[in-house]
């Protein structure tokens, strides 16, 4: 007879989502450029309830929105070219939506700041964190903002109006010990306030429980590589409600999935070599789900967003 934990694991295994292996391009796909039907190295993404895709369009210094079935996007932040003025961005690498305040939070990486843009009002911008080499952003159900600092190898949590933040992960210099990070990139916060961090230069994903002094390695334990136990410069990380961890395995051109306790992951999409075919990726960066659990991938060097439908 199976134990309770074995039953739980069996349930998780049977509920693993499977995805069609040929992606559908839902944004970009027209080469690198600054026209509204183009992207130039898309990074962080999120999907709203209408299946509109919001994209940090890195080399175009803008945030763009592509509505469902649209052939072009619309600029919602940073349409005035690269710069540090209130209506400008410089190499935005990530964006999330704050539902409570109806605003976009943007990692304005080139300007070393995190800014808030209020929906459809580009002149109403606030700098909420200054002097930070921020890559990843997340927001919890209480509205606290989490920002990864790739320069200081730490993640901090910010209350509204607090620019210093509270250290919640790392902060012990760069290294590969469990209380250290080395280039924390994308981050995800779950309903238990556990923080998942793609530890870029350590080629692993860390989980830091609320209040923990050190993290747990939850994806990739064998150093840099392309086996099923390894990652190569992980970027986007999202966690399914069943606890499945999805990772954009950037330099391996694939998206991986780890379940709790797994020694090795599995390839979810990609993994067919670097390329621009519909079953291939080229430096995947951001990840997101829509409300039907379809998977979206920012396919950075193919200048497109790919949607993989759930089977």
UniProtKB/TrEMBL annotation:
Q: CDD domains this protein is in?
A: NHL (cd05819)
**Sorted alphabetically, which Gene3D superfamilies does this protein's record hold?**
TolB, C-terminal domain (2.120.10.30)
Record's keyword annotation contains Repeat: yes
> InterPro entries from the entry?
6-blade_b-propeller_TolB-like, NHL_repeat, TRIM-NHL_E3_ligases
Matching entries from SUPFAM superfamilies are given as: NHL repeat
The protein's matches in PANTHER family, at most eight in alphabetical order, are given as: E3 UBIQUITIN-PROTEIN LIGASE NHLRC1-RELATED, PROTEIN LIN-41
Full protein name: NHL repeat containing protein
What organism is this sequence from?
Answer: Adineta steineri
């Amino acid at each position: 007879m199976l134990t309770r934990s074995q039953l739980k694991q069996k349930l998780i295994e049977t509920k693993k989502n499977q995805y069609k292996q040929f992606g559908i391009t839902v944004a970009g796909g027209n080469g690198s450029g600054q026209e509204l039907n183009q992207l130039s190295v898309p990074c962080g993404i999120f999907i709203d309830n209408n299946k509109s895709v919001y994209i940090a369009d890195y080399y175009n210094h803008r945030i763009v929105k592509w509505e469902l079935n649209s052939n072009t996007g619309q600029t919602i932040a940073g349409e005035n070219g690269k710069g540090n003025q209130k209506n400008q961005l410089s190499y935005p690498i990530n964006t999330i939506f704050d539902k409570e305040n109806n605003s976009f939070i943007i990692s304005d990486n080139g300007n070393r700041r995190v800014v808030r843009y209020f929906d459809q009002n580009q002149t109403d911008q606030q700098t909420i964190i200054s002097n930070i080499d921020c890559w990843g952003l997340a927001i919890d159900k209480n509205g606290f903002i989490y920002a990864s600092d790739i320069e200081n190898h730490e993640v901090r949590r910010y209350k509204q109006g607090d620019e210093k933040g509270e250290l919640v992960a790392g902060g012990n210099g760069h290294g590969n010990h469990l209380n250290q990070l080395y280039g924390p990139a994308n981050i995800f916060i779950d309903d238990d306030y556990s923080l998942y961090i793609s530890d870029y230069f350590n080629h692993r994903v860390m989980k830091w429980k609320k209040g923990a002094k050190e993290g747990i390695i939850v994806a990739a334990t064998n150093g840099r590589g392309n086996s099923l136990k390894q990652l190569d410069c992980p970027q986007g990380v999202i966690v399914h409600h069943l606890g499945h961890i999805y990772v954009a395995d950037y330099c391996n051109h694939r998206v991986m999935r780890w379940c709790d306790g797994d020694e090795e992951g599995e390839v979810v999409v990609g993994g067919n070599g670097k390329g621009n075919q519909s079953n291939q990726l080229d430096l995947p960066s951001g990840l997101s789900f829509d409300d039907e659990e379809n998977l979206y991938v920012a396919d950075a060097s193919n200048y497109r967003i790919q949607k993989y439908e759930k089977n």
